[in-house]
Design brief:
By secondary structure, the chain is an alpha/beta fold. Helix content is about 25%, strand content about 30%. The radius of gyration is 21 Å and the shape is elongated.
Length: about 300
């Protein structure tokens, strides 16, 4: 079967794209592994009319609604290979099956590369977080920390100070230049140069950060700006142009979310440096509309 479009990734960007294509009465195959990036968080904030909702529950509702359109098909597996054909694209799945589609929308997301510090992974998305707009309000006025991972962490520390008293844990990295130090001081950000050994707290809560010299300052939430990588190499297989940002690699797209390869669109975290459910959904809508118009004109 030749689908009008194949969407690789069934989270907020992919489902938004599929919804608009389905509403245009086009056949859409959605290939998804069921492992969205924000699956570690119990609540999603800032998405209009869904503030505080569980992201997994939001996706379950979205899948149900998208699946109600008769032209949509869900395929719960991973796409491993993509080949451009004269009339579209051929997608190989881990099952060995092959899908054919006239247009392709990439929305497979990114994976975060967390620092190798004991206690971070189990608290990720709960008390170890990356976005103040997504989770900062819930920790307002509490003891906040920023773990240095790159130059981006300096900006993050200045921003986090809006939500409460903040400490920048350099974790052994060199002190910033004098101008940056002055700006941090102006924002009342404390600086701790000592290395970080571990995080402590009951369950996924955070109560102390253990330093390499044995001290354990109290802390309620730790912000991390991790490196990340694309969840799939399919864009590279197709020859899509890429760009780099301080966190990793993103797929270059036009204002209508089309990649450098005609007929291939991309949406969500794989196309931008700033990430949120709202942006992912908006990008997905744009990609879905653009893919449909490319089918028409």
């Amino acid at each position: 079967m030749l689908h009008d479009a194949i969407v690789i990734g069934g989270s907020f960007a992919g489902l938004s794209a599929a919804t608009y294509l389905a509403r245009a009465r086009r056949s859409v195959a959605i290939v998804d592994t069921g492992t969205p990036r924000n699956r570690f968080a119990a609540h999603s904030h800032g998405f209009l009319a869904q503030d505080g909702s569980n992201p997994n529950a939001m996706l379950a509702t979205a899948r149900s609604q998208v699946g109600a359109y008769p032209t949509t098909t869900f395929i719960n597996t991973k796409a491993t290979k993509a080949v451009q054909q004269p009339d579209g694209f051929s997608i190989e799945l881990t099952t060995g099956e092959t899908l054919e589609g006239r247009k392709l929308i990439l929305a497979f997301g990114i994976a975060d590369e967390l620092p190798d510090v004991p206690g971070i992974a189990e608290r990720w998305g709960k008390t170890v977080i990356h976005c103040p707009y997504c989770h900062g309000y819930e920790f307002s006025g509490q003891r906040l920390g920023v773990l240095y991972s790159s130059e981006k962490s300096l900006h993050q520390a200045m921003l986090i100070a809006e939500w409460g008293p903040a400490t920048l844990y350099l974790n052994g990295a060199p002190l910033p230049d004098s101008a940056t130090l002055a700006e941090l001081e102006n924002r009342n950000v404390a600086i701790e140069p000592t290395g970080v050994a571990a995080l402590h707290g009951e369950g996924t809560n955070l109560s102390a950060i253990e330093l390499s010299d044995g001290r354990r300052p109290a802390i309620d939430a730790l912000y991390v700006a991790p490196q990340n990588h694309l969840n799939s190499d399919i864009a590279a297989q197709l020859g899509c142009a890429m760009d780099t940002n301080p966190a990793g690699t993103i797929i270059r797209t036009s204002s209508m979310q089309e990649t450098s390869v005609p007929g291939v669109f991309a949406a969500g975290d794989i196309t931008r440096g700033a990430h949120s459910v709202t942006w992912a959904s908006a990008d997905g809508i744009t990609a879905g509309v653009a893919a449909h118009r490319s089918l028409v004109f």
